[in-house]
Design brief:
mainly alpha
Length: about 300
């Protein structure tokens, strides 16, 4: 870790990547909490896969690999996928998880078809688009980091302004409606922010692994607390830790992709939380079971003696 800190100070590229992955981890951890609490765990997977055809089509239409152009195409494609998911749920008897699975498969298949087609073209202009499948953190630029930090700041501002309304939406949407709160607007706002966060992370983590990065910090944080504000804070911190540690391990070893390492760290934090969390962890539950067993035996013995 000391060598990594020295590398951050001396190496501009490592410093930019570390800042980018830390900001991305905080964003995904923060917004992933809403996906976990709303029981939309597949949303991140569906949106990230739905973004792939948007990236490829943006390149086909503009013949440029400018990050902002490709990300704009991904956002549009992700929004279309989200709208289709809601339409399927409302207009058919299919449940949300089924609609998510359909959109995920169809959009990803279409994106892979387009990607395969353009990769077979004789020119080399399309080279590098496949990095969005598994991510390539080394391509992060200072402009990308600034954008990530700006989105993080905007998400924190929205959360601060609408915290009470969002909390009601998560835990009692019907009561929020009786108070005159526009729940549809808040629902769309959350979904749009999740889509933007997912799209911004595609360059680093990739389409395939994005769902794990969105959900893992929130799932880990949920084990430690029952408070929404604490969970949001912990999710952001655990996301940052995953980003920084993943970057550190990747930078210290050859031939290790940053995105997959970040996801492995995030999932490891989930496993640790499942085992050691004070109230919901496996150890805490086992200890509580033993206490309950001893208490039951004591009550049983007292009843027998009387």
């Amino acid at each position: 870790m000391l060598e990594f800190l020295e590398l951050i100070w001396s190496d501009y590229t490592v410093r930019i990547i570390t800042m980018g992955t830390a900001a991305l981890g905080a964003i995904l951890g923060l917004l992933g909490s809403f996906a976990v609490l709303r029981k939309q765990s597949l949303l991140g997977d569906a949106i990230s896969h739905a973004a792939l055809p948007g990236i490829v089509l943006a390149f086909i239409l503009t013949q440029t690999k400018t990050t902002y152009v490709l990300l704009l195409g991904a956002i549009i494609s992700g929004l279309i996928g989200s709208v289709l998911i809601n339409s399927i749920v409302k207009r058919t008897h299919l449940k949300t998880d089924t609609a998510l699975g359909i959109i995920l498969s169809v959009f990803f298949g279409f994106g892979m078809l387009l990607l395969t087609a353009i990769q077979k073209q004789p020119d080399a202009a399309q080279a590098g688009l496949d990095k969005y499948l598994f991510g390539q953190a080394a391509t992060l630029m200072l402009e990308d980091v600034k954008l990530l930090i700006a989105v993080l700041g905007l998400a924190l501002l929205i959360l601060f302004l609408f915290y009470k309304e969002l909390k009601l939406l998560l835990f009692d949407a019907d009561y929020a409606k009786t108070l005159g709160i526009n729940t549809k607007y808040l629902d769309v706002l959350i979904t749009v922010f999740i889509i933007v966060a997912i799209v911004l992370g595609l360059q680093t983590v990739g389409v395939v692994l994005m769902s794990a990065m969105l959900l893992a910090p929130a799932a880990a944080a949920r084990q430690w607390t029952n408070s929404l504000s604490t969970m949001l804070f912990l999710s952001a911190i655990l996301g940052m830790i995953s980003g920084v540690l993943g970057t550190a391990i990747s930078a210290s070893q050859d031939n290790l992709s940053t995105g997959p390492v970040i996801v492995i760290i995030a999932v490891s934090l989930v496993v640790i939380s499942f085992i050691f969390a004070p109230n919901r962890g496996l150890i805490a539950k086992r200890v509580q079971q033993r206490k309950n067993k001893k208490l039951f035996e004591k009550i049983k013995d007292d009843a027998a003696t009387t």
